[in-house]
Amino acid sequence: MVFMTDSHTDSSNGGTLSPEARDIVEGIDAFDAKVTDMRKNFEADPDDAIDKIVKLAFPAAAGFAASKALEMMWNHGTPKHAPKVGLLRGMVNSAVFAGLSAAVGAMVSQASERGSQALVNRRHRKR
Q1: 54 and 39 within one domain
Q2: Domain tally for the chain?
Q3: How far apart are the C-alpha atoms of 13 and 69, rounded to whole Å?
Q4: DSSP states of the chain
Q5: Residue 4 counted as domain residue
Q6: Is residue 94 domain-shared with residue 64, that is, in the same domain?
Q7: A Pfam family this protein belongs to (predicted)?
Q8: pTM across the whole model
Q9: pLDDT for the residue numbered 2
Q10: Among 44, 70, 74, 96, which has the highest number of CB atoms less than 10 A from its own CB?
Q11: Domain that holds residue 77
């Protein structure tokens, strides 16, 4: 049975590894270094699972609520049995709604991301 030391030598054949074995050992060392780096990054991350959930759920819920509110306001001005509008007017209405929806979505996204980060920062200060 052959045991390797930290210097990656094999005492059974004069202290050197074959090129194939050396490649395998170097690959394992590179993998070990990558895992060690990932572990250090994970341990250095101040956010725990609750923080990550808050950062994910709060903006999603705010975006959903804002989109539903905008849709309700947009549809409130349209009677249920409105006469058909022309093709051009329908396209203009769709474009206006898409632009308004995008603008509101961007504002809500920015505000909710900042709000969720503020909640997480407050939790970190309390610790």
Answers
A1: no
A2: 2
A3: 76
A4: -----TT---GGGTS---HHHHHHHHHHHHHHHHHHHHHHHHHH----HHHHHHHHHHHHHHHHHHHHHHHHHHHHTS-TTPPPPPHHHHHHHHHHHHHHHHHHHHHHHHHHHHHHHHHHHHHHHH-
A5: no
A6: yes
A7: DUF4235
A8: 0.54
A9: 47
A10: 70
A11: 49-126
